[in-house]
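pipeline/complex-builder :: batch 7 item 3
reading input block
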Amino acid sequence: MGIFHSLNTTASALTAQRLRMDVISSNLANVDTTRGRMVNGEWQPYRRKTVTLQPKGTQFSSMLQMAIGKTRSGDVGNGVQISRISEDTETPFKSVYDPSHPDANAQGYVQMPNVDPLREMVNLMSATRSYEANVTVFNANKSMLMKALEIGK
Amino acid sequence: MKLFGQTISSLERGLNYSATKGKVIAQNIANVDTPNYKAKRVKFKEFLVDAQMNELRAYKTEHKHMDFPERNVQPGVFDYSNFRYRHDGNGVDMDKEQANLAENQIYYNALVDRLNGKFNTLQNVIKGGR
């Protein structure tokens, strides 16, 4: 562990939260996208994407390194990372009646993306607050390091 | 006679504790949105008492008895088990972490000030009070 360990930890969190915001932006931008992907010659609407976070250093490789004693176990941790961006296949698409729409089916219904703007906004607020909290931690650690430079002056 | 005495090494241990605590708080707040993450804590005592003194020893009444396995965790850092679960299994209490962060910062500053005071005293003695 170096002296900048905690700053790197916070930096990883800032990166993760920013990526979360990017994914939420993408969801909100595609709230009306009916042509997200071509499947068997048919257009499918955009699928809402979600991110999964996990602490860094819990992958198989680092667990193995720990088990064979290469690295010191019980390390405080290396921060957080996005383990995957997955598509939300559980929430159903919304059906909207609009016979004039080019993508409407025989009954006149159009499949709209499963993006709920309300839910995305709530997630966006959560990501923003987490980002702010991490900025606070970053500043606190920075001032502690600056104070350490004053030792012996 | 020792020139530096015990004070400086005590302060050093305090600074080590405080720096580790800073790292742990950073780690906890970084993982505030991670499902099933368990918050970590730092034990003050283990940083002050010599690690050797605090080690758990097996009491052997028979030579075939085995020792307790060596603890391979970093001294003083442990998972905090007594917390409320959030619905996603995350155990980070943001308010508490922020409070700890502020407290830790002040504590660190106080230790550095004290250390500087100690050095200034020595400087004063070396210069003969001039």
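note: The radius of gyration of chain B is 20 Å.
queue -> next item
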